[in-house]
Structures are given as C-alpha cells and as structure tokens.
Amino acid sequence: MSKYECSNADCTVAVTEKCVLSHVPIEACPNVRVVGAKTTEDKLSQTSPALPTTTVHHGNELGWQQTSALLAAQYGHLVGVLGATGTGKTCLLSSLYLLASCGDLRPSFLFAGSTTLPGFESRLRLLRKWSGSHLPEQIVDHTILSDDRQPGLLHLALLQTTPIRIRRELLFTDLPGEWTTDLVKRADKAERLRFLRRADALLITLPAPHLIESRNSQILFGRMLLQRLRDEVGVDLTSPVVLTITRCDKTGATVPPATYQLVEAAHQLGFLNVSHLPVAAFSGRSDVPSGTGLASLLDTLFQARAQPLPEAVSALDDSRMFARYRFPQDARP
Amino acid sequence: MSMSRNVIFVGGPGSGKSNYLFRTWIAIERETGLLVKDGLPPDLGYLHDGATILLDGRFAPHTSRDTRHTSSIPIAQRNLPGFTSTLVVPDASGELWLDLYRKREWPLAWDELITETCGLVLLVLAGSPHNVPALDWVTCERFYRDGVSPQPTDIPTQVLLVDWLQILHSIADRKLGRKCAPRLSVIVTAWDRVPTDRQRGSPQDYLEAEFPLLAQFIQADAHGFCAKVFGLGIVGGDPELDPEFRKHLQLSDPSTLGYVITASSTGVERHADVLEPIYWALGLQA
Fold first, then answer.
1. Strands B3-10 and B80-92
2. Contact residues, B window 88-127, toward A, CB-based 8 Å cutoff
3. How many CB atoms are located within 10 Å of the residue A15 CB?
C-alpha cells in the first residue's frame, strides 16, 4: 500500500503510486490525500494529544506577596525609583539589565538570576506600557495578569565578586511617573508610597536637559518631591537618596549646576545621605557611552553592609520583612 | 521493583534533544558505557525509529510540534551488580519549551518527573540558525534613538535558557523544598560545528562568548543546581554538512563514534563516552 488515497474511484494511486490524472508530484492532485506515515522520519512525527498544563508565574513584575516569598529566603535591597513620566526610569532599569545580560558588569558583578526576566526583556523593547487613563492605584499583592503592566517590582540578582563574594538581590520599583507627580500635587497620594519607608535607597530621576532648560521649575519640583517624601511618606532620612541625572547623552557628563542646588535643598530638609549621579542609559556619543554611571550606581547601592534593625519600622502592610535589615548610613557631620 | 530515574531534556527547537536521546539509546543498547540495558523497553518504536535514522548516517528531523513521547528504558549499571532502574526521558518539540516562556504553560505530566533523583539536561546547539542573539548596545541605541524595533517577538536564546532553568528550579523548590539541588548538565551540542580555533577553549568559554547571560548564571552558582558544562558531538562529525563524513559514518559503527568535552585544570578533556552528561545528571559521577 502507498501513503496515498484518492476520491476518484478510477484512480489506483493507493496501490500503484501513479495518479490517473498524471499529477506530478502526486500531492498536486486535488483528489488525492496523504494518509499514512511511511518513512522513519514520518513515524517520528506522529502526533499525540496536547498535554494538560498548569500556569507558572508570568515573570513580568512581582507583587508584594511574591516579593515577600523571595525575601523570605535572602536579604534584598529595595530601591525606590521615582520621577515624572518620561524622565528615564524604565530606560535606567533596561540599561542596567542590558549591562548584566551582555556581561558588561564583569568581573565585578555576575548576573545571578532574575524572577522578572520576561519583564526586563519586554521593557527593554518598550513593549510594556502603562495603560494611559486607567493607571493602577496600588502596588498589587500578587501580579496575575500577563498583559497589563502592573505597579510592582523588578528583580535582579547579581553576584558581587569583590571585595567579598556575595549575592545581591535588587528589587526596583516599577511605578507610573504619575505616582511621583501626583505626590507632589496632593498629600493624600502619599499612602500608596508608604512602603518607601523601608527602601534601602531612593533614586530620583531628573533629565539633564530639563535641569538646564527648565532649571527653576525642576528645582521647585525636586524640592517639593523631597519635602513630600519626608513629611507625607515619612521616608527614613538616613536612606541614601541618589539624584539620578538622566539623558546625559544629550548634555555631556558635566552635571548641570541646578543639581547642586537640589542637593543642598535635600540637606536643608534633613536628608543625611544625598548624592548625585550622571547617567546615560542609551547613547550615541562616544564620550558618554551607553550605560554611563550605572556601575557607580551599583557601588552606591552596595556601599554599606546590611545590619539588623532593632525592630520593624511599621506594620503597614505585609511587606514587613523589608524592615528587618537596612543599610546603616553614615550621618553627615 | 526498580526505581525510576528521570532525566528531562530541556531545549528549544533544533537544539538536539531527540538526536541525543537516540544516541543515548544506541549507547545503552550496545552497552558501550556505564549504563547498559536491562532488557528491551516495552515500547521501543520511538527509540528504534530514531536510532535507525542515526545509524543510517542522518540526523533525526525536527520533532513536530505535537510530538510527545516518554521513553522508559530498563537500565543496569555495569560496575554495580544488582542495580537496576528505569531511565525515563520525555521528548517533546522545542516549541513546547517556547510555550513555557511565552504562555507560561508547564505540562502537568512533567510535574511528576521532578523527583529527588531526577536530573536535567539543558541543550543548546552550536551555530544553530534557531539561536536568537541577545540584544546588543548598537541595536538598542538605534532603537531608542530612531524607534527601529529590535525584533519585538524574538526572545534571545540565552534569556529562554535561563528562564527555563529558573522555572524548573522553582518547581523543584515547590515539590522538594529548597535544600534539594537537582543535577544539571549543560550541553553545547554539535561541538563539531564550533570553529576549530575555539574548540581549544572549553564549552564554558563558548557559552561566555555566545550566551553571556547563561554563562554568568552558571558561573555565579546561585541557581540552586549542581551544574556541569559539556561539549558534545553525538557521532563525532556532521553528516549533513560533510558528505565524506556521512560515508565514513555509514561504513563505521556509530556506537563507537562521538565524544564529550569537559574543562579540566590543564585545558579541555575529550571523553569517548557520550553518556557522561547523563551520568552527571543522574548523580553517577562526583
């Protein structure tokens, strides 16, 4: 028997492998049908019913419950990333991820894992966007939607190789820029950011071109934001605050003078550990290459060793374990 | 009743999972290594058909998307009289693994294969046209400057490989607890296709250059597996690219061909036993 069947009663292709209508190849005949696996290769390709499946975590971002489960096993650095829309928060994280994935953090750091690998990949391609008019109001407990971008955290584990070999778990907030601008405008928007009391560091993204072209309004915005963070959110004044000057590929690595005024304003508000860092996430300039400043950012985040706190800061939500450990910060004289 | 020893082959389309399974069966059937057959498998059709293709001097074709087959091979261990077991190896198309990344779907039947004695074999084919390179700085700089899309749907191979391992470890965690560290063999298949000058380096060196995310992930050793990296040529050449080698293969005994490469303190070592990665995955080697 051949592997063909034919609906034409006069055709003997099933026995002779010759088409009565003389089609070559035989499969070109509209009446013929391939019915049997014949070759060894064909036998290997025989199909089976689909396997029942279960769903694993989508990996786009983490909610509080998922974060807590991760931190139950090891200490993690919670980094709050704040800034208005379009100031480079996502670009900053994407650039850090690209540095890690290309191996450009070697030999000081090795990529050691990420439970939000798909999230980093889709953010790098700008495929994961906020849904405009319906921005979420809270960081979710448990992210279950794979399509909509959720306020949550992105996880990146690095193995620090010097001066000691230690695994670092970084958890960056991924929040809409509106959460930052809303906080400046309205004190009652502080509640959803109270978790930042437990942050190991705060990054405030400020584009260098804005600090040059709109110097006064940017200083005003920065001062208001810092005051809200102190008065309404209640962040720990010893937590490192890094004024992250983004888009330096547009202006060069020279820090805009307005930055120093903001640093001074932060000191006046009582923040004890304030620094500034020029960065360029993606750049076409050789004097300010892509990724500029990000290694220094890691150094800043890991500059002190974690020590246990005597007691939890707050029982505000189920993420209390963040308060178990925090960087001891050197108070400025 | 003998205990099952499960080995899960992990890899995308065209990574060499099926061909290594068939070569494994040839080695066990011909009893060329540490693991030998303990009778014939009750259902031999899939293994027999695949071995036939290899013995005829060809590689098995791409496993179709809907193929699911679990091979159960009764085995004994040559230097351990009385030891009998069943080697259980599921084989499925690489598309099923792509679905694990894209759709986050994990086959329930495979959950049962995650046991304290299971092992994992991750395969990546050297020079495969299926391999998707990672995004690089030049591409991203163009994308962020001009909005030129960096292949929005193609996920880099190294991202898939790391994501699969992390998912597998989370499943092992859930089922077995965090103290369990499953054995993992990472295999660069088609080592023959690696350029000759680079074959002087180790398989880990190859991963460092081609898949830096995976290489770092393994090197950092924070993944929760007991891992070792291998290079593999299942028949010691490429009958599809080299007609002369195909003739040689047809005139030879394929069970005597093939090799495994591992790193050593003096450089690289070549082993004639293609089952070395299986031994590591099963914990038969320290």
1. parallel
2. 92, 96, 100-101, 104-111
3. 10
Residues A284 and A136 in one domain: yes
Comparing CA positions, the residue from A255, A247, A277, A276 lying closest to residue A264 is: A276
Show residues of chain B in contact with A125, CB under 8 Å: 135, 143, 149-150, 152
- For A267-318, the pLDDT digits (tens) are 999 999 999 999 999 998 889 999 999 999 999 998 854 443 333 333 333 3
A103 close to B220: Cβ distance less than 8 angstroms: no
Contact B203, B231 (CB under 8 A): yes
Residue A51 lies in a domain: no
Residue-range definition of the domain harbouring residue A125: 64-331
Pair A195, A290 in one domain: yes
Among the listed residues A322, A288, A315, the one whose alpha carbon sits nearest the alpha carbon of residue A95 = A288
Residues 6+ apart with CB under 8 A from B207: B124, B186, B188, B214, B215, B218, B229
Residue among B65, B144, B161, B174 with most chain A CBs within 10 A, to mutate: B144
- Are A35 and A70 in a shared domain? no
How many domains are there within chain A? 2
The two three-digit tokens of residue A212, written as one number: 């040059």
B145–A282 C-beta distance less than 8 A: yes
Residues A35 and A78 reside in one and the same domain: no
Query: What's the pTM?
Result: 0.86
Q: What is the DSSP letter of B119?
A: E
* CATH number reported for the structural domain that contains residue A105 in this entry: 3.40.50.300
Measure the CA–CA gap between A87 and A41, rounded to whole angstroms. 56
Q: Are both A142 and A278 inside the same structural domain? A: yes
Complex ipTM: 0.93
